[in-house]
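User: Could you check the structure of this?
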Amino acid sequence: MKVNAISIRAGNVLEHDGKLWIVLKSQNIQPGKGAAVVQVEMRDIVTGTKKDERFRTQETVERARLDEEEMQYLFAEGDLLTYMHNETFEQIQIHRDVVGEPAQFLQEGMVCTVTLHESRPLGVQLPATVVMEVVEAEPVVKGQTASSSYKPAVVENGSRVMVPPHIETGTRIVVNTADGTYAERAKD
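Assistant: Sure, the predicted structure tokens are below.
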């Protein structure tokens, strides 16, 4: 879909020079002399290369049409993750790199939002939090205050998470999938 360059915002996906680009920053520049322009910093979705581009404000650019589908994570086979569409039961495989760091928190049966462009997966968004069991935690050190100190713990998938001192081995905790941080103790 064609849009004026002035309406480009961070997070938009553009088709430019035969490639798909995600907009990182967009800034309107009004020079003292001459026409206003839009300075856009964007990253190639496939290769990851960054590029700065200037568009005249009235220039039209092609904004990519993206589809978001809810899919259920089934299993991993090496670096390929298999997802199933919830309505058609069609299965697709997505490379672990598309998911990124949060892939370590995937659990069988988890429903994720997959962003597609012409049936090609561009990204996978996991639920905001996931419940994990602590399998290894250091013992509490006397004299530590609970308000400011955290200790390292290992959760069931092998990830290290900094947790408050009162968390012990066997405790179920809620972990933020975006950055792998402790959110709260899970309610049983």
